[in-house]
Amino acid sequence: IIYKKINAERYWLESQYDYIVVDTAPSLGIITQNLLYICDEILVISDCGKNSYKGIKTLMKEWDGATKDLEIPNQINGIIINKVEKTKNVSRGYEDFLRGKQDISHLIYNNTISYNVKLQETEVACTPIDFYDTENKGYESFLALMHEMEDKEVI
Predict the structure, then answer these.
(1) Distance CA 134, CA 9 (A)
(2) Binning pLDDT at 50, 70 and 90, where does residue 107 land?
(3) Rounded CA gap, 122 and 114, in Å?
(4) Predicted model pTM
(5) What is the SS3 assignment for the chain?
(6) Angle at the Cα of 22 (from 143 to 5), degrees rounded to 5?
(7) Phi first, then psi: what are they for 136, rounded to 5°?
(8) Which residues partner with 82 through β-bridges?
(9) Which of 25, 74, 107, 143 could form a Cys-Cys staple with 67, CB 3.0–4.6 A?
């Protein structure tokens, strides 16, 4: 039902906006599935951590099965590593671990999203980082990621 309703509005939405970003919960519940069915591109965001890799694998396996059953293309076109703290071994180790996985390494973006105090402050202030502080590493990592997305013609 959700898929039909959203898909019916899709053409109007596309005429009004250059990009429509859907941020969903990290699950494949019925609402998330319906939203993903209408997406042209799916980017998986992964926080640093062992459970995050398990989540990526589960998501990709279940989504691949769903797309085959429905005979629609699998639109997962990238994995972005989020909340990276370059000074912490856990972040560096997780990033190296993912890049070493042959089944997903081709999907991983070169640029990652840094995690620092300024980004935490933007959450509390309810202000986008580009309005809050353009002089910090968090902003620079978002900007570099946007350029990479442009190069890959995702945006």
Answers:
(1) 36
(2) very high
(3) 13
(4) 0.86
(5) CHHHHHHHHHHHHHHHCCCCCCCCCCCCCHHHHHHHHCCCCEEEEEECCHHHHHHHHHHHHHHHHHHHHHCCCCCEEEEEEECECCCCHHHHHHHHHHHCCCCCHHHECCCCCECCHHHHHHHHHCCCHHHHCCCCHHHHHHHHHHHHHHHCCCC
(6) 155
(7) -115, 165
(8) 47
(9) 74
